[in-house]
Design brief:
The structure holds two protein chains of two kinds. Chain A is of the alpha/beta class. Chain A is built from 19 helices and nine strands. The longest helix of chain A has 23 residues, at 333-355. Chain B contains four helices and five strands. Chain B is elongated. The chains are: A alpha/beta, B alpha+beta. At the A-B interface, helix 2, helix 5, helix 14 and helix 16 of A face strand 1, strand 5, helix 3 and helix 4 of B.
Chain lengths: 366, 149
């Protein structure tokens, strides 16, 4: 009998209706979801039909060398409606920070979820994995490496949330005292979706979950394993200050005329041209703004090795003097110029990363 | 009380920053023309377009307000109104904390979200029949939410 179905057996449509959510509300949710996932509004009916039929997947969330900022980002999301619907539609069977169980009961929940849903559960990881010494980070006496390997075996796919899980992040920054590595450095036989950012934008995390629920597949990924929907364009190309860049109008300091007029922050170290993320359009804090809109350059937190990229306030490269002229010559040249500068910037970033000297306690005391 | 001089960022001097306002208004014009000629509806997601602070307001001001103004209460409020251009609707969805979670311009005769949905009507039919069985005035008809909690 339908009424006897456990929550896990229900489709998302059934689960929502049992919570008294009308079809109209559901359509509104789907419209917000399509917008969040940067899908054309014409996809709204497709999303609605697919989500209605989706069944609640089991999700196991492992936290390794991390600061819990990724979980904070997700749970402090302002689009509470969307997030709560997503979490109503998954079965979050293990998450240190959020679960009520502790100790042996918590580990038993993880093992039970792995057994019950073998081959079907989603594994979400935040934090990097220390290879230097297993004792650097353990959970219930199990090293991060062992827990990852054990839990990854039966996962349908892995979502590496945050720059630490995706690329090693801050623990991986030089001198990398724990030998921190990313999930992708260890796991080679499972589909891995990288959702970097420090932290990632909340709706990007839920957007990936929604994509999996909606289409039953992992989204199209870029060369760094990031979903193209959210990481397909650079911050620079989607930045509302971009026209100032094209005109050669830059803030030179944080308190000069250019800064007050909202000119481009390129010369103040903005990593927008080499950074791929959705901040410029999705924004933060319920769509209020994003770092550049608040007057601060992008620090490139969703890129590999962003911490060793040569200084947050150091320009990635100096624009050519005739950038305006170049742009004028090429109609729609904005993108081309951005790509060229971006390539130069990436080269410079790589060089800076290579040349970066480790900082000692003595240096910090100076 | 003396006025505190706050630093102001993102001040727009002169022309629009992104130049996306005019093209977007032209897109609406073309979509409206197509709706008239072929009946094909269109939707523009305002959040998918990079707009500088103030530019979204410019678009909304240009479109103005028309004759129809509706409010939904579905997982948070939604505001739907026909602009001063018939067939061009502005739809803003909020979550329960009143944050905007989606803003669309729909070019259509009537937005789908306003129509009663088949599943909801089927549920309502059931509820109405129950109410009639119990007799008029019993007022025991439960809302969809109450039934399922």
């Amino acid at each position: 009998m339908t009424k006897d179905l456990s929550r896990k057996d229900k489709t998302l449509g059934e689960a929502l209706r049992s919570q008294g959510i009308s079809r109209r509300s559901f359509l509104k949710f789907c419209a917000a979801t399509a917008s969040m996932m940067a899908l054309p509004p014409s996809m709204i009916p497709t999303i609605a039909n697919a989500l209605e039929q989706a069944r609640r997947p089991s999700v196991i969330w492992l936290s390794f060398q991390e600061c819990t900022g990724c979980t904070e980002s997700l749970t402090r999301a302002h689009t509470a409606t969307v997030e709560s619907l997503i979490f109503d539609s998954i079965s979050l069977d293990y998450h240190h920070t959020l679960q009520a169980a502790s100790g042996h009961a918590a580990e038993a929940a993880r093992e039970a979820a792995m057994e019950e849903n073998h081959g079907k559960y989603l594994l979400v990881v935040d934090g990097s994995i220390p290879l230097g010494n297993p004792g650097y980070s353990t959970i219930a006496g199990i090293s991060n490496y062992d827990m990852l390997m054990d839990t990854a075996k039966g996962a349908a796919a892995i979502i590496s949330v945050g720059s630490c899980a995706a690329f090693g992040g801050i623990p991986h920054a030089k001198p990398n005292p724990t030998g921190a590595v990313s999930v992708g450095d260890i796991i080679k036989d499972k589909p891995i979706i990288n959702v970097p950012g420090c932290p990632p934008i909340p709706v990007v995390i839920t957007g990936v979950l929604t994509h999996f629920l909606t289409f039953g597949t992992i989204p199209e990924l870029d060369h760094l394993g990031r979903p193209k929907t959210f990481y397909g364009q650079s911050i620079h190309d989607r930045c509302y200050r971009r026209p100032f860049y094209d005109k050669g109008l830059f803030a030179e300091t944080f308190d000069d005329e250019g800064a007050r007029k909202g000119w481009c922050l390129y010369k103040l170290g903005c990593k927008g041209p080499t950074t791929y993320n959705a901040c410029a359009t999705t924004k933060w804090n319920g769509g209020v703004s994003f770092p550049i809109e608040s007057g601060h350059p992008c620090i490139g937190c969703s890129e590999p090795n962003f911490w060793d990229g040569g200084g947050f306030y150091k320009a990635i490269s100096i624009p050519t003097e005739n950038i305006t002229k170049t742009t004028m010559y090429a109609a729609a040249a904005g993108v081309a110029a951005g790509v060229a500068i971006g390539a130069t910037g990436r080269m410079k970033k790589a060089a800076a990363s290579k040349a970066h000297q480790k900082v000692t306690i003595d240096d910090l005391d100076k | 009380m003396s006025e505190i001089s706050l630093p102001q960022f993102n001040i727009q001097i002169g022309n629009e920053l992104t130049w996306n306002v005019q093209p977007l208004l032209h897109e609406i014009r073309h979509a409206l023309g197509e709706l008239l000629q072929t009946g094909k509806t269109g939707v523009i997601d305002l959040r998918s377009i990079p707009l500088a602070p103030g530019e979204e307001e410019t678009i909304i001001d240009t479109l103005g307000c028309g004759e129809v103004h509706a409010k939904l209460n579905a997982l948070g409020p939604s505001e739907i109104y026909e602009t001063r251009f018939a067939g061009v609707w502005l739809i803003t969805h909020y979550n329960e904390e009143n944050n905007v979670i989606g803003r669309f311009i729909e070019i259509t005769g009537f937005p789908d979200i306003l129509k009663s949905q088949h599943e909801d009507m089927a549920f309502s039919l059931n509820q109405l029949e129950q109410a009639l069985d119990e007799g008029p005035g019993s007022n025991k008809t439960e809302t969809q939410a109450e039934t399922n909690t």
